[in-house]
Specification:
350 residues; alpha/beta; 2-enoyl-CoA Hydratase, Chain A, domain 1; three-stranded antiparallel beta sheet; 42% helix
C-alpha cells in the first residue's frame, strides 16, 4: 500500500483481484458494451424476482418453514427497528407448529441476543414445535450469540458459518441510572418512602449496595441456568461448558470443535438437514420463507413507544465521543429495554 501511495484499488488491480477500476456508471457502460446494447435499453431483473422465476416449481403440499430471528431480542410486541419482538415471534412459531402442511422449521438466526426472558420464551416455543414431532434446525448468519444462542439450544441441530460469532454464554444486568447526570445539571432528587428499599430501583438515585448485591445474585443465578441449559442441550459436561463460557464469543469454527454447534454450513445445508429429519424426499416439499412478524399495536401503545423513544434520544443525544465504540442505536435499544432493569445476554458489536 505504501508503494501505491495508499491506493488500495490500484494495488488490487495490480494483484489481479479486480478487472478494472470504475464506478457504477462505468460498470453499466461495460455491461452495455458487452451486450452491444445502449445502456438505457439493458433489461435488468432484481435478485428476488430472479430467484422466484428460477425456483423449481412443485405441487407438493409439504413445507419447510423458514422463520427469521433477526435483531435484538426484546420482550413484548414492540415495533422497533432492529429487534425481535418475543410475543410476535412466538405467535409465528406457534402458528407454524400447528400448521399441518409444515413438516419442519428452520430458524434463520442473525442476532446478538438480548433480554433473557425473551430468549427463554422463544426457546419454549421452539420446544413446543419439537413436541409436535417437527424437527427444528438453526442456521446462524453473522451472529448467533448470547440470548440467540440460548434459544438456539432448543433446536435439533445448529448450523453456523466458520466466521459466525456465536455462543457468548454470559449474562449481565442493565440498570439505567441518571443520578450522575442530574448532579452535573444541579438537579436534586428527594422523596418519602415507607421502607429503606421502597425506592431502591429508582434511576434518579445512586444504586445502593444492597440492590447491587441482589442484582449480582440474580445475574449469577441466570448465568448458572445458562451454563446448565447448554450442558444439557449439547450433552457436554457442565464443567467444560463453564470453562468455555464466561461470556466468550467463539467463531463458528471454534464452536464446532467445542461441540457448541453441530455442523458448519449455511441455509442450504440447514434446509437439507430439516428435510432429512422430516423424511421429506427431494422435490416433494417446498420452502416457505416467512417475513418478520408484524406486531399488532393500539394507538396508546404507539404513543407510549414514541414518547419513550423521544425521552431516550433527549437523554443520550448523539455523542460523537461514543461513535465507533458501540453503535448509538444499540445503546438506545439496551436502555429502552431496561425499565427499570433487565437481565441481558447480549453481544455488543460494531
Amino acid at each position: 500500500l505504501e508503494n501505491y501511495q495508499g491506493n488500495a484499488a490500484e494495488l488490487a488491480l495490480k494483484q489481479g483481484l479486480i478487472t478494472r477500476i470504475g464506478d457504477e456508471h462505468a460498470f453499466r457502460q461495460t455491461v452495455a458494451a458487452a451486450l452491444k446494447q445502449p445502456p438505457k435499453h439493458i433489461k435488468k431483473i432484481g435478485l428476488h424476482a430472479y430467484l422466484a422465476a428460477t425456483e423449481p416449481s412443485t405441487t407438493a403440499s409439504a413445507k419447510i418453514a423458514v422463520v427469521p430471528i433477526d435483531g435484538m431480542l426484546v420482550t413484548g410486541d414492540a415495533p422497533l427497528p432492529g429487534v425481535v419482538a418475543a410475543q410476535a415471534t412466538i405467535k409465528q412459531l406457534d402458528r407454524v407448529g400447528h400448521e399441518a402442511s409444515v413438516k419442519a422449521v428452520v430458524l434463520q438466526v442473525n442476532s446478538p441476543g438480548g433480554d433473557v426472558n425473551a430468549a427463554q420464551a422463544i426457546r419454549a416455543a421452539i420446544l413446543r414445535i419439537r413436541k409436535a414431532h417437527k424437527p427444528v434446525i438453526v442456521s446462524m448468519g453473522t451472529l448467533g450469540a448470547s440470548g440467540a444462542y440460548w434459544l438456539s439450544t432448543a433446536a435439533d441441530r445448529i448450523y453456523a458459518h466458520p466466521t459466525t460469532l456465536t455462543a457468548d454464554i454470559g449474562v449481565f444486568a442493565l440498570f439505567p441510572n441518571y443520578a450522575g447526570l442530574l448532579k452535573k445539571l444541579g438537579i436534586h432528587y428527594s422523596g418519602i418512602a415507607t421502607t429503606r428499599n421502597a425506592n431502591a430501583m429508582s434511576p434518579f438515585s445512586p444504586l445502593g449496595k444492597n440492590v447491587q448485591k441482589a442484582l449480582q445474585a440474580m445475574v449469577d443465578n441466570t448465568y448458572a441456568d445458562f451454563v446448565n441449559l447448554v450442558a444439557n442441550a449439547r450433552h457436554i459436561p457442565t464443567n467444560k461448558v463453564e470453562h468455555d463460557a464466561q461470556g466468550r464469543a467463539w467463531s463458528g469454527l471454534d464452536a464446532y470443535h467445542l461441540g457448541l454447534v453441530n455442523a458448519l454450513g449455511g441455509m442450504p445445508q440447514a434446509i437439507q438437514e430439516a428435510a432429512k429429519l422430516a423424511k421429506l424426499s427431494k422435490g416433494k416439499y417446498q420452502v416457505q420463507y416467512l417475513p418478520p412478524p408484524t406486531p399488532s399495536n393500539t394507538i396508546p401503545q404507539w404513543l407510549n413507544m414514541w414518547s419513550l423513544a423521544r425521552l431516550r434520544d433527549v437523554i443520550l443525544g448523539e455523542n460523537p465521543a461514543l461513535h465507533g465504540v458501540i453503535p448509538m442505536e444499540q445503546i438506545r435499544l439496551l436502555i429502552h429495554e431496561a425499565h427499570p432493569y433487565a437481565l441481558m445476554a447480549y453481544l455488543p458489536v460494531k
